Each structure stands twice: as C-alpha cells, then as structure tokens.
C-alpha cells in the first residue's frame, strides 16, 4: 500500500457518522495516525492531493450541476487559516470563495442567524470555504448566551428547546443545500488546551504572526471546558457526516 492510500485509509478513523456514539474526549488531539510520516512525506502527499484537487475542480466546474461547501471549525489557533492556505492553494482561485464568519453586524442581526450563511453558499460549479460557520451560533452563543439579547428573537431563549431548534435549523439548511447539489464537507480541527496556549504565545513571539494575536483569544481560553462541551453537543446532534481531525501534531 502506497503512502497516499495508507493516509486516506487512516482518515476513516476520524469520520463521525453516528452522533449518538460520538465522544470528543476519546479523540487524542496529538494523534498522528501512526503513519510514521516525516514532514517531507507530508509535503509530497499534499502535492499529490493538490494535483488531484485541480483535476476535480475542473470537472466540478465543467459539470455545472454540483458545488462544494467546505466548513472548518475549531478552537482559536486550531489551524483554520493555515489549512485553507496550504491545502487549497493549488486550486483555481477564480472558482473558490472563502468566507470568515465573525461576530454578526447590525444588518445581519436584523435577519435570522442562517441568513448570512445561505447567502455565502457556493454557486454551481464552484467551491465555498467557511472559516467558522453556522455552528458559531450553537457554540459562541451557547457559551455566551447574553449575545442572544441582540438578535431580536421572540419567545423564550437559552432553553433546551431553543437550542434543539437551532440544531434542527442547521441540519435542515445543510440537507436543503445537499438536495440542490451542494456537497457539504465539515471538519473540526482538534487541538489540546496546551497546544493552543503554545500557538497563541507564538503569535506574540514571532513578528510575522503577531498580527493574528487578539487579547480576546486569551480571554476565551477561560471558557475552554464550556466550548468543549458545546462542540461535543453540536457534533453529536449534527446527525450528518463530519470529520474530527486531530491537529495537535501539525504545525500551524
């Protein structure tokens, strides 16, 4: 078995297909898949995958019946930006859009929480990448429910039924997109709390990365356990295939 085939086979262990059996605590964020790959091996594999992505992107555009949505979620400093930069740099940028979902602005708060998500969905034949996504509205708002006070919502909020409804809304949107021909791929980039600390400190120590540092990142670390629980619930209730990638062994 060549290294690429071995790598692709190893990915099966990271697929989450049954939310009822999902347990984030059983995923080791420092797991490297026992593949024994060096950095040079990784670079060669990435080059091969990029070449395949280029071919598949051409077919996607020529076919004009499907599109692809790639969703990246993870704690601060998990490597979302780096993943986009290194993995997707081989595709034609004219056929790719990248959207980073930050805190909703005034106009977005006048609409339902999925309004801005649907607006950024990919056109036929194209690829859209979400750096954070609709899941922020069951992650950040779950940890900081006071944010809901600005969303002009009717009825009781921050109740079990409220969150159950949000999970359902997200599932229905993804199912709708899938029926329209959009392939939805979701990745949770998993790192440990210690790895995050080291990466955040590196942003201070390395001048080229200093622009990434935000004091709010350090503040949010206080809620690590709350975010972990929110991710556990979100992935478990997702009821759709996702991939939990252990990224602690990777360089950001």
Summarize the structure.
Helices cover 43% and strands 13% of the residues.
Describe this structure in words.
43% of the residues lie in helices and 13% in strands. It is built from 10 helices and 6 strands. A 6-stranded mixed sheet has the order 1-6-5-2-4-3, with helices on both faces. It has a single domain, classed as Rossmann fold (3-Layer(aba) Sandwich). It has helices at 3-10, 39-63, 80-87, 106-109, 115-119, 140-143, 160-179, 193-205, 215-220, 224-238; strands spanning 15-16, 67-74, 96-100, 127-131, 182-190, 242-246. The longest helix has 25 residues, at 39-63. With 252 residues, it is of the alpha/beta class.
Overall pLDDT metric: 91
Strand elements, count: 6
In CATH, what is the class? Answer: Alpha Beta
| Corresponding CATH superfamily | P-loop containing nucleotide triphosphate hydrolases
**What low-confidence regions span 5 or more consecutive residues with pLDDT below 50?**
none
What spatial form do the alpha-carbon principal axes imply?
Answer: globular
The fraction of residues assigned to DSSP E strands is 5-15%
User: How many individual domains?
Assistant: 1
Order of strands in the sheet with the most strands?
Answer: 1-6-5-2-4-3
Structural class by sheet pairing and helices: alpha/beta
* SSE sequence, one letter per element: HEHEHEHHEHHEHHHE
Q: How much helicity do the residues have?
A: 40-55%
Structure keywords:
252 residues; alpha/beta; Rossmann fold; 10 helices; 13% strand; globular; Polyphosphate_phosphotransfera; kinase; polyphosphate kinase activity
């Amino acid at each position: 078995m060549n290294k690429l085939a071995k790598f692709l086979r190893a990915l099966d262990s990271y697929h989450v297909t049954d939310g009822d059996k999902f347990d984030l605590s059983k995923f080791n964020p420092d797991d490297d898949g026992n593949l024994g790959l060096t950095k040079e091996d990784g670079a060669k594999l990435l080059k091969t995958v990029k070449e395949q992505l280029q071919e598949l992107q051409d077919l996607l555009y020529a076919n004009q019946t499907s599109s692809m949505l790639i969703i990246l979620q993870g704690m601060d400093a998990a490597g979302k930006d780096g993943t986009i930069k290194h993995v997707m740099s081989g595709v034609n940028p004219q056929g790719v859009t990248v959207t980073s979902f930050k805190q909703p602005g005034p106009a977005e708060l006048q609409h339902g929480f999925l309004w801005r998500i649907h607006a950024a969905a990919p056109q036929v034949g194209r690829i859209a990448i979400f750096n954070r996504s609709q899941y922020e509205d069951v992650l950040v708002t779950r940890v900081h429910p006071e944010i809901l006070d600005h969303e002009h919502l009717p009825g009781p909020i921050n109740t079990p039924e409220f969150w159950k409804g949000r999970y359902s809304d997200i599932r229905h949107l993804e199912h709708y997109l899938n029926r329209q021909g959009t392939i939805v791929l979701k990745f949770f980039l998993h790192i440990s709390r210690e790895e995050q600390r080291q990466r955040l400190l590196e942003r201070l120590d390395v001048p080229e990365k200093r622009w990434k540092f935000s004091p709010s990142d350090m503040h949010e670390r206080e809620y690590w356990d709350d975010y972990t629980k929110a991710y556990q619930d979100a992935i478990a209730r997702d009821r759709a295939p996702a991939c939990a990638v252990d990224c602690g062994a990777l360089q950001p």
